[in-house]
Give the backbone structure.
Amino acid sequence: MSYITADILLRAYMEGIFPMAPGAESDELEWFCPQERGVIPLQAPILPRRLLRTVLAGPYRVCSNEDFDGMMRACAEHTQTRTETWISERIRSLYGDLHKMGHAHSVEVRGEDGALLGGLYGVSLHGAFFGESMVSRVRDASKIALVHLMAGLQKGGYSLLDTQYVTPHLARLGCVAVPFRTYRQTLDAAMTVDAQWPEDFSLNALRPFIERFARSRGE
């Protein structure tokens, strides 16, 4: 088994490369570099009106990094539509190290009792955020987290939100596919940006940015 560290992971992300495990029980890592990359434009995201109304109604509490490992575990859970996961124990350990270094973060959607209802996690490096996985235990939880993520990245001065691939779910939230050459130029530019991960992901803190998304849709 090759020896991969958190620092090696960061260098890979700077080159547009990311790992996944072949399965939950595997200690191996496989490296990926899609020739079409999923990106959500941060400056003018196209978001569904119904979703924006739900987010602005603030039905849940949204926070960051209260339980990063718990968020990873939730993303690895089997569901009716997802019977396998690439989030192995080795992946959890490596990204836990990134989290301790301040380079991996979660956005968590919680109920009134504090229960984790959904969210996402990913890697933060200079002006880029690389989304890794998201999950919903109730309707729209991951989408609410993603809208808060976009608003938080705008507030923090980020220039790139990388989703790795375009899925039908992400396409409905404004994700587009860009050729790797174009993506690499955007990535290189993001590596020159000194962005800051916001400490507060609450609706009150991010409302001006989320309302800007709504105004762009003519709300």
Summary: The mean pLDDT is 93. The two ends are 53 Å apart (CA to CA). Strands lie at 18-20, 30-32, 36-39, 61-64, 104-110, 116-125, 128-136, 160-164, 176-179.
